[in-house]
Amino acid sequence: MKILSIETSCDETAISIVEAHGSQQNARFKILANQLASQAKLHARYGGVYPMLAKREHIKNLPLLLKKVLTKAGLNEKKPKIDLIAVTHGPGLEPALWTGITFAQELACKWKIPLVPVNHMEGHFFSAMIKRSQTSKNPRSLTSRNFKFPILALLVSGGHTELVLSKKFLKYKIIGQTLDDAAGEAFDKVARMLGLPYPGGPEISKLAEEGRKSLAPLLNKEGVGGGNSKNYHPASGTPPRRGGDKIVLPRPMLKSPNFDFSFSGLKTAVLYLVRDLGRLTPALKTEIAREFENAVVEVLVTKTIAATRKHGVKTILVGGGVASNKHLQKEMSLVTQRLGVALHFPHPKMFTDNSLMIALAGYFHRNDKKPAINKIRAHGNLHF
Ligand code: KG4
Ligand code: ZN
Fold first, then answer.
1. Mutate which of 46, 97, 322 to test ligand 1's pocket (most atoms within 8 Å of Cβ)?
2. pLDDT of residue 377
3. What is the CATH number of the domain that holds 262?
4. Is this prediction's pTM over 0.70?
5. With a 6 A CB cut-off, is 205 part of the ligand 1 pocket?
């Protein structure tokens, strides 16, 4: 079947056409067309996503992207041979979500085809369950991975940080989540404090990598965390001595007896540190970026592994924008190799927000009882 998928939950307008066959572990997908218009540059001047601007841009982009995907897939613009439309209905920014939903509703009515509402986070989940087909030379051919349950997904994006346990196909339970800021949001806010542009994750990550190359590693033998005795803790209020002490940031809730996260204290620690330091030299920025990334990654990895042990998890998926963080990828693979657990990151086109993952989720939900087309609503806080 051919699926048209639409994603407008945040600052990316995305539409794809995907051909899908098979079920669960035998599902096969072919990307017929995939278009994405990122608004990141527009939002950069506000240091984050500005919802009404996002809405305006989505409204402008949607018809243009639709035309492009239909042409690319060789389909008739008036009555294309599409079998299903999948649209993100949450979570996300409601004004932005509504643009995609109303656009999808109009198309579904005009073309008289079913419309399936998709949970954006489930899209991130599926983005790591799919890989490039080994049997086809075409990079646009994808297949399901041979995954084993229970699956634990660490979903880390600009709006969410969740540990989702799945013991059965399409059944999910959130077993941990952030109590305040999402991991990506913390990356974005800390980047802003360091004078780096939005989105901050890739910028911090770049600096942190430079820092790791030029300075002695902070990592201990376990692969995560570390530091030595001569450490500077921002909470102490004592400015670091240059050339000796290392900057050490807190690892919030690292030892808490649950799988929840908190990143706002870490963000505040950076805020105090930056205030204490006064002028930030490039070397200090690099060191802060490195230590901040170490702290976030250590908490994410430690909690994921604790949940893996407790629930006898066989497959770990990591999805969402922060999954593209190289340090997180490296640390996760080190620890999971030791544990003998399968680890999967998203297909390269599906790390950050995209509509391919919405097509995958829409396909797997194609047989669900669907709400009437005009009853589909935006749910900013939609949960699994
Ligand atoms: O999944 P996503 O594209 O959008 C949401 O659903 O929020 O995630 C965007 C987030 C942003 O906060 C961005 O800074 C972060 O993912 N991000 C990263 C990296 N690339 C993107 N965070 C850390 N390291 C990266 N390399
Ligand atoms: Zn997302």
1. 322
2. 98
3. 3.30.420.40
4. yes
5. yes
